[in-house]
Amino acid sequence: EDKVVQSPLSLVVHEGDTVTLNCSYEVTNFRSLLWYKQEKKAPTFLFMLTSSGIEKKSGRLSSILDKKELSSILNITATQTGDSAIYLCAVEGTGGGADGLTFGKGTHLIIQP
Amino acid sequence: DGGITQSPKYLFRKEGQNVTLSCEQNLNHDAMYWYRQDPGQGLRLIYYSQIVNDFQKGDIAEGYSVSREKKESFPLTVTSAQKNPTAFYLCASSPNRVGEAFFGQGTRLTVV
User: How many CB atoms lie within 10 A of CB B70?
Assistant: First the structure.
């Protein structure tokens, strides 16, 4: 059965700080790892990672995959209050006989002004 | 605008009733998914469909049913057999197997 573990589960920082969110996984026939941001309702797509060691970057957010360590990190620099959200990590594989994404429980990030 | 639409946003169900949650997409995506989200649990896959007239059970399919009669539509019925249906339900679609899934705004179901 595919498994995704995110840490920390919650994090409170001050505006301007840099944060690193972690995601580790166990998956059969890994295909991709995805990061989503969920503010109130619909998760919105951030990154899809398939190759190890290649950083994906979008503004202040960046992410990298380490297939050897079966993990990924999501970095947010110069955080703003608008970054407050639940960040979800998901992996795509073929384990467990069910298709679709296996999600972690998410990291609830709170940015204090 | 292209997108994925769920309705209703809020739904109240009496115990013993079946209710159907709607999910429609105009993105021309082949694959559609239903997830359930509980506090502290992340998203869990209920059902998915890769093609019209075909669907597969996910990890927590018991007490739920779906249909995929049209490419655009993937309704989810929460039956009375689902013992703990109060949750936030998210529908998603993707152009191929999974890849970058697009999510609807969700339906919050409460049993009263």
Answer: 10
